[in-house]
Amino acid sequence: MRHRAEIDGLRAISVLPVIFFHAGFSAFHGGFIGVDVFFVISGFLITSLIQEDRQLGRFSIADFYERRARRILPALCFVLLCSLGAAWWLMNSSDFIKFGQSLAAVAVFSSGLLYVFTAGYFDTTSELNPLLHTWSLGVEEQFYLFFPLILILLSKLGGWALRIGLLALAIGSLWLAQWGTTHFPTSTFYAMPTRAWEMLIGALLALNQARLSQLPQAVCQALSLLGMGLMLAAAILYDKATPFPSVYALVPTLGAALVIGFGNATTWVGRLLSTRVLVGVGLISYSAYLWHQPLFAFTRLTQGGEPSPVVMFSLSVLALVLAYATWRWVETPMRSRQLMNRGQVFALSGAVTAGFIAIGMASHFHVLPTRWEVQNPQLVNYSPVTDPQPRSSCRHLLGDLGLGDCLQMGHGRRTMVVWGDSHAKALQAGTPNMPDTRILVITHSGCPPLPGLRRIDKTDGAHVCDKFGVLDRFERLIESVKPDTVVLASRWTLYLRGWVYEGRTMPEHFMLSDGQDDKVLASLSYREEIYRQRLQGLVDRLAARTQVRILTQPMDLAQRDFRAVESGNLQFTRAEVDAWHAPERALLGQLKLPPNAHVLDLKRLFCNDQACATRLGGTLLYRDDNHLSALGASQVWKALREQETQLAGLMKAELPISRR
Description:
Blueprint: H1 5-23, H2 33-55, H3 61-90, H4 93-107, H5 111-116, H6 135-155, H7 159-183, H8 185-190, H9 196-212, H10 217-237, H11 250-262, H12 268-273, H13 276-283, H14 285-303, H15 309-334, H16 342-364, H17 371-375, E1 391-393, E2 405-409, E3 414-420, H18 422-426, E4 437-443, E5 453-455, H19 462-468, H20 471-481, E6 485-489, H21 492-497, E7 499-501, E8 504-506, E9 510-513, E10 518-521, H22 524-543, E11 547-551, H23 561-567, E12 572-573, H24 574-580, H25 582-589, E13 597-600, H26 602-606, E14 611-612, E15 615-616, E16 619-620, H27 630-645, H28 649-652
Parallel strand pairs: 3-4, 3-6, 6-11, 11-13
Antiparallel strand pairs: 1-2, 2-4, 5-9, 7-8, 9-10, 12-14, 15-16
Helix pairs in contact: 1-2, 1-13, 1-14, 2-9, 2-11, 3-4, 3-14, 3-15, 3-16, 4-16, 7-9, 9-11, 10-11, 14-15, 22-25
């Protein structure tokens, strides 16, 4: 295939907005469209190469995958190794566990699937994920796992059948993307089937390039200028609120197609893109894309806040410098077949993939400690996977109820059911020490134990949350196991107030699902009233059958402040904790509780009148910015045990405030 310098320049036009978008520069709040342009370029180039090889009779699937491995893996593995070292050195335990999950997912090109269940691309916490950007590599590789075979099969039916078939696939993929953006926005953003149409635009362009190149020069001039204008307009006018990859994505992708199709070297656009600077940036664009997000994320993590624009611009330049070094000394040599033959490439690829999966799983299961833990051994037992209590699953009790995860802790004549979101699940790490009680912990992360309510940012889990929140299902379980006590545990303040990020409140809206329409609960006062009604109804129905306990949230630690909490440099006053959790206190204070229902204020457990504890005996009471550690969970179980014998015992159980 003839080298086209203008396509290298287009790569530069694609990668720079992405870098500046992730750097946080407001002028590039639509810079994420650069990824969509990349997809079009990729589809065009790969299809052109496959068709050229097929016409020359030299195409083979093995050769295709070898070239993909030589193109993608060397730079990716090098950046992953460097990121692994930085993560081990800089990250705390909870961050490193998440990094390990991402590392294993990247190794099998499925990081997008992981992010569907953890965080959205535009979430504030995603800025701290060094491997967030690798989702696009996964989409590409998943697509090219099937595309050559589809291309060959359709080609057997003839040229027009090939074009019509790919067009039909592209239209179907676009329709799915448009529908999914409304119904399942997170998974739609990351999924290959809803991104395939962007690469298929490039593929269709490649199949028709010969015809398009015969158009008059004036037409090419106009259409290439239009294409450049569409891409720039999308980069400037789009923002995080723009539904993607819906029909809105047609603007930058069709713009890219017009530039590729008509922006030849004789047009103004072609001459601009063929300039030495843009071509140079385009040649190193893949490595630049790999480097920029780890640099940004690790800097944000270590600075404990958003770096200045000067710092972020300097890091952007550094990404280009590292990209050049990687392109010259890693990418380029590995493309030579004299250095390594096909069998060695596949063998090394498999070994490296297995190695990253093993390291990622070792991090996930906390087998691999971080530098911070090695230097602070007294804090290691705050690990979220600490599990001193033998357990057995109780999923057999759920049947088809769809109530989420269920774990049984202990055995005894009494039964306690703990129902809630990940804050209820965090209690599993503690030791209940209730020898006469069987405890069933039924949870689903992100799903409040409030019938009919679910988080709007958890749309992809809506059906799970809806099932989890259907009280009739839970009541059937209550009738089956006949618990002596039901404990409700949840991150109440988040559901009422929203996220806190860098000292600012990030309003998070939630949906009220009534079985017909979903209504966004955008007003705080309206949310409080709806939540109060739902929680009151829940308590009344449960209290008619058993004892009910509602656990308040101990406290939320700001995302960035948890690193300072770990190092012992940050304390929390009781006043600021009470101020932040005021909506929760108002909600629970308005409940009309039956005699057998009580609110257990865990802030009284973890705070005195002046301050709130983050450690006990030198060990952290939290494992991240809001979930209790194993030690913290054990303190809650201790209070619950005392409450089961004497309700007033909880109010007397206060921890000394750590001054370390």
